[in-house]
Write the structure tokens for this entry.
Amino acid sequence: MNTASPPDSAKHLATARAALRSAQAAWATLADRERRLITLGAAVLGAFLLWAVAIAPAWRTVSTAPARLDALALQTQQMQSLAREAVALRAVAPVPLDQAQAALAAATERLGGAGKLSLQGERALLTLKGANSAQLSAWLAETRAGARARVVEATLTLAGPGVYDGSLTLALGGGR
């Protein structure tokens, strides 16, 4: 706790009163024109501080609010769409493991030499070398729809403009 003892506060109060008397005495010695200029300067400074501290931040908030509200509404719509998609995907019946593996193999064949599939029970590992983004996107959509597979780990590097190298680990079957 930082409380001043009574003698210390009295000392500070006396110092403040002495400074006020000194300022009043200096004010009294000024000419009327100097007093008006100082008063005007203080008013301008006060108006600037009022603008900078109170009005400008509020004005900025009010002026940017419609754009921020629109962005938040769009984000809310996207999240609701993703939530509906998640509910729909959970409602889809799981695919038997052998059928899921066959669907993954068929999708990987469409990647050509850009993808190599390794099946490990309820997991699959796809190794990519030079797969373009359109191929990868189509492969992911096909495996999600046909094999009900989901990516559980991805390590991708950009090998060139729209070309990826790396690996994807997928979970197959009913393990949601």
About this structure: The mean pLDDT is 89. The CA atoms of residues 132 and 164 lie 6 Å apart. The chain has four helices and four strands.
